[in-house]
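Many introductory courses stop at the sequence. We go one step further.
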Amino acid sequence: MNWMEIVVSTTTPGSDLVSELLTQIGAEGTMVEDRSVVPDPNQPSGYWELIDPSLVDTMPEDVRVHAWLTPDASLGDRLTELKSRLRDLQAQSLPFDPGTLEVTCQSVEDPNWAEAWKKFYKPFRAGQRLVVKPSWEQWEKQDGDLIIEMDPGMAFGSGTHETTSLCLALLEDVVNASSRVIDVGCGSGILAIGAALLGARDVLATDIDPDAVRVARENIERNHLTDVIRAQAGNLLDNVSETCDVCVANIIADVIMSFASPLRAHIVPGGYFISSGIIRERGDEVQEALTQAGYEILRRVEKGEWVAFLSRNP
């Protein structure tokens, strides 16, 4: 079967918005081609030896988001809608440069696109103990390694994004054998799985997208953690009445600020809130919102263009 591959040129901070727009018009999957997230093989970082040095050389200078659409009768309308939304995005006063947002299209056969995205997803170490490994790759386990085996699907988080690795590293610092954890907006389930491997006794993973919950459940089963992690569909915490010792939310700044205050009812006194998905330019705004909601900011960490917070519910 042939598919229509759509490629949008953007920037690192713009890639999430572009991916979301492509998904909204019916993309079968997205893959971000971003040389800035590929470790420099000349700078040892714990997983540099897994990167083919020629990979970076073959990647474009700009960030490109690839998507695949079914070439049916609605394709023309969907492309028109995409270009209209990209023009609206370009006209907005965003806190970052979204890039050219140039769109190119080409027809590709099924074998070409179905596997193309996998070459950009390699095992890597997040924090000191957690290792994220795609199911099709090999990893030589070292003493103390906790392996998260992922098959994220093309539309959900693989763990390579800075915000995910920031959250995993912070989870290492606060999760223990007595922890109850809630992962809000779980996506592929990677953070919930990380929390369970770190020893959490109970983990609830929620997401508004039923497809994300399906992928999360598959990954939870793949990691043999169905006895610890529950995944359910829901609008943030609307359907959640329980409390936790650690809540993690890797979403976007606006959502974090909107539910930070009501979220406190779900975090025990002295419990932790890990939040990320926050573009650097909005870090101060989110920090102020967390403080006004009553949290104690314990740590602010940054990686690339992204910010994460470790906060405590007093």
